[in-house]
Write a structure and sequence with these properties.
Length: 146
Amino acid sequence: MKDPFYAGIVFEIERKITEGDQIAKSRGIVLTDSQVISVLTKVLGAAEGKLAQLPAASNPRDGFLVEMFGKLKKVCEGIFESEEGEAPDSAKPLATADWARALRCVIESARCGRGRYRARGIISISSDHSSRRPSDGDSAAFTRRQ
């Protein structure tokens, strides 16, 4: 995906996955690429209106995967978009179609990289494509270029 608008969204997804990896590791849980892909696929399904089939939290790993699902779903709620030149406070919530497109990009990239030893860094992108709005705390604003 070469559009800088989506790169910022993908960065936010990657940031949450990396954060999840760190939390899992601190709890003694090792996540595989397949598990992360499964959670991302469930988040994508939920964005498209499908009911997510989450595992019962019968062990710490499954409980954490359910927790990660919830956190990844919330990433979309913290992303706003605005037209170039608009005031930051006029930003709109991210469109579901754009969220789904970014999730598909991360899922596809993760599938291509499976089986090789690497850090979870599914996609290498630069934070230069995102701009943070300090007044929104964890919210990120992205400008759609026309």
